[in-house]
Amino acid sequence: MASPSHSSLKRKHDTPMPPLSHHDPLFNVTPDCLQHPEQLSLTQNGIAYTITMAQFVHQHDRYAKHPLPDDLFPWLHGVDGLDHQQSLFFGVRKVVVPKHRGLMLVHAGSSSAEDHVKRLAYSLPADLLVEQQLSPDTNQPVWQFRKDPEALHGIHLRNFSIQSWRCASISDLVVFGPHAKTVACRLAQAQECIHRERQQYHQRLALSAGKRAVVNANDLQYRIFIISGKICQCWRNQTESFIFSLDAFDTIQQNFPEWVWYDDQGTQQQCLSLADMEKQEMNQFTRASQITDHLWVGSSHDVPVFDHDDQVAQLNNPLGFSVCIECHDLAEMTCQSELTLARAMLEERDQDQVPPELMHLDMYSTGAVMDSAQDLDAFLASLKDLLMFMDDMTRQGRNVLIHSLDAYSESSLLVLTWMMYKQDLSLRDAYLSLQHQRSFFVFASDVPLLQVVDHFLRQSSALDYYKQKWIASLHNNTPSQLLDHPSRLLMTDQTIHEISHPQPLTLAVNPLPSNPDKDDWLSCPHFEGSFPSRMLPFLYLGNLNHATNPAMLKALGISYVVSVGENADLNNQDFQHLFLDNLYDDGIDSVKSQYDRTVAFVDEAHKRGAKCLIHCRVGVSRSAALTIAYVMHHFEPLSLVAAYTLVRARRLNVIIQPNLKFMYELLQLEQQLTGRFIVPWHFLSHQIHLLNDTFASQKEELSF
């Protein structure tokens, strides 16, 4: 049987639509996008509408400005009404799919290799959205939208991985790529299946709970669009026909370069990966800086390398380093003979002459590699030799680089030790001096070792006491993640809570006879090794332990504190305190109602030349969301993606994890501040999932 003509399809399936008003709760495409329908295989009534790239860009611009709805939760959490535990937690009896029409761009490649060729910005590959499953009616394989994995059943607050196919099932889908027709057929079949399933569910729900339960049920039928190059109308023998140019990529590259992610050669034209953006932000934030004369701190990316562009390899060493000391967890302490050899090799050249080859030395990144008093004594002896060597080199005017892979945690042990040695500072003053110059992170397990080093360098009579304290700390119940993973780690809320509340040490030694110092924040039981994270010169993000160490806050110049759901109970005479009560990280509470109060409070601190701390319990979700909101406001207009990567990178070793609803509300804030969202929710969620998956210590997210 011959396929009906385009004209008959247009008359049969097109229905006139009223113009979209600002108050229309549902987004819809304009009628000009429904002029060129085509019958699809695999379906009974599947239709794909051919549109140009210009039409798609116009529709996407309208969609980006259309107010994002508030009623997608708890459905986006993965709640389907079939899990009693879910329904009880989120306070719902029956769940219907929200009535919403999104707009999603789908890349039609046939393999993962084609995902990086001729790909448009913000598109998701089709195999991420649909898969073949057996039909319960015919027991035959059909294309359906992906189902939430069994492992994700239960209560989850950070289900970023399921957002792509959940959003696809309530969106019009726009297909572009070398296999657009094939993919369009699969998507249309998935749409038919999900529409039939929802109708059957609504019928059962109406019978069991009454018709009122399905008043707002989603009965929408979603569409498929295919982007083509040109649509030319012509007349032949009084018959209207259309000519389609299926390879539109050349036209798109020429006329819409901002929409090209990967070009026809597979070259990336713009950075849309959150992982790459975070890496760029981190490299910029941790770039090498000079902390004392001729002594630099940076990452391993700052180590000079040989440039092989010319026939003769030359060392690319713009800062003129002579010695590079790498701090890592597999290091062996540099011995005295190695230092003697390095001195001899450097003395062969003038003091102002950079050697053709660098001297590379090693240093422990943490004291966790030692487990006895003998190890400690050997370490202290080697450490003093290394410090004397570094001092000799810098006095001679030679530049020394202390580096590690992350540039902020693994090198902190040596950097703080150097500042105590070189500038004759106490550990407390070394902390503050380094914080003034660059951000850093110290593991709680290394604080006792740094205290030993402090008293060792000063030849203090209390050295034996601190050695015994360090030995006792080896048996402390510190979570193993601190010792086994000195780099960044994506941890559950429970693990971060344990790290934020270490067990107190039980020492088999008599305490030092001294008067308690109320300003000694270093000895405060709430001090966990590191300061809160500096987001901006006047804004810090931290946890409850930071907020309950008032001496440390004063030392950092922090006099304004925003407590998000956790009361720090600070003295009102010393601190301006904003307590945002009854705000929980439960996927139910909304954070956007607190934007205005928080922004006004932090702005007041900034205008008065003060510094402000925003904290919750662990500093990863509630306080992180409000910090992102403030950064977006402060640099207005700043996109959510830019603010998110800035805060995530500057939180250093603690990876922020605002829950799903908080992130969605931040996207609504972006729309409010700029008049549109920049990155669609489905693409943003997928990128967050990929980014978290890179650091995940376990595949399953926190569930209750």
From TrEMBL:
Pfam families: DSPc
UniProt-annotated stretches for the region Disordered: 1-24
GO cellular component: nucleus
Keyword Iron-sulfur: no
Matching PROSITE patterns: TYR_PHOSPHATASE_1, TYR_PHOSPHATASE_2, TYR_PHOSPHATASE_DUAL
Protein name: Uncharacterized protein
Domain of life per record: Eukaryota
Ranges where the Tyrosine specific protein phosphatases domain occurs: 593-662
